[in-house]
Design brief:
By secondary structure, the chain is of the alpha+beta class. It has helices at residues 6-20, 36-42, 89-92, 94-100, 150-155, 157-163, 165-187, 228-236, 274-293, 316-324, 334-343, 354-366, 419-434, 445-452, 465-473; strands at residues 51-68, 71-77, 82-88, 108-117, 123-126, 129-134, 191-192, 198-199, 211-214, 219-223, 241-249, 261-270, 297-300, 303-306, 312-315, 374-377, 389-390, 393-397, 399-404, 407-408, 410-414, 458-464.
Length: 496
Amino acid sequence: MDTSNPLREERLRKLAEWRRRGIDPYPTKFARTHLAEELQRSLRDLPAGNESTIRARVAGRITARRVMGGASFLDLRDGSGRIQLYATVDVLGLERYELFTQIDIGDFLGVAGLVFRTKKGELSVRVEEFTLLAKALRPLPEKWHGLQDTEIRYRQRYLDLIANEQARRIALIRSRLVSAMRRFLESEGFLEVETPILQPLYGGAAAKPFTTYHNALDMTLYLRISDELYLKRLIIGGLEKVYEIGKDFRNEGISTKHNPEFTQMECYWAYADYNDMMALTERMVSQIAKEVLGSTRIVYQGHEIDLAPPWQRIAFRDAIFEHTGIDIEHVRTLPELRTEIARRQLIVDPQPTWGKQVDELLKTYVEPKLIQPTFVLDYPIELSPLAKKKKDNPNFVERFEPFIGAMEFGNAFSELNDPIDQRERFLAQEALRRAGDEETQPLDEDFLTALEYGMPPTGGLGIGIDRLTMILTDSPSIREVILFPTLRPKKGEEAS
């Protein structure tokens, strides 16, 4: 326990004094009658210098205090907003008033009294009774109003929420976004389900998993990287519209767009294809924006964006050709592709496979230009082991990714339902794994068995909740929208 902080020591002294007086500084509850924002709204027309007829009981954290002899002004903030407290020795009496002046910034306080507006126009509660609800033993950070230190903000998110209105706004919007998404999907007839997080074999995406071990069963398990293969089993079982919102985990690098654990919505729709899923995505995202923000027009990182349908559509092959001059239909091997990249003096990180190299071209030369809502569709088959081939060109599949503000935030297919073709795709992925690619789809015999019982034509869609929240809150980093992002241990501190 830290005993070297003199401010903390002073608060401990005050805590002991409350207890010496027989007062519990951590009582069980406080019956409040009003929220700060409720009072501010209902009494907005109360003239300066006038009293209301409301005798309110309010509670919250003290965020500012001004003691001036026989009168004290404190700011109290609850979950809805702020209201001023006004306490005087005349109303409380000398002994109670002196005790009131021992309240510190950060303490939780409950008060009861008449609501009035001061001559300066500040809505206030005249303190007639007060109850210390929780003594804060640590002072809030210096200049906590508008806390800017990102290290403190991410590691001690509670301080960020106390200090920054934007942090609270993001948390509220994220919650409302998820609720609006659930309402939309249920209105479309989708059934919410749950699938395993601990899986004997991971799959449904190209990613490296986290590995764990189950002692009682004596078996290795993996944290899921996607919900896809289990949700498809439900389609096979006759549940024709299903969705899940939950955590997925990928053992990959951390960036402004990536966190090892992230929240994703996946939905599957029997008898639909990727065109239906594009229309569903447009409707869902625009409806969520209208519900949560009141408009389909947003600003993301300086760009004015309209989320209203219809969104732009561009083929993967056409997008690469437009921005690099390379026609990937006619450059089908990795050496040929690297030759074309060099000939055109394109600067792109080298990748181990043809598929990953063309995907890197997209990320480098196309994605930064996809500001307005755009579907990039018809991906190379090498990048899509679970998607159905295009009828007119088997080198490409019926897949799309949606982009807003130069950021991909989802993935969708016309799902592959041919078990023979699916086995061949899995075997091709196994060959890439043996060649050194760790981010491939392992062969899943149990899923292939399920598929052999027959799966109807199906459209599937995944939406990253974190990235969609970034877009709707104008947040440049995924760490802004995850309350507790994954961080490196502090220097000299071991990970627990």
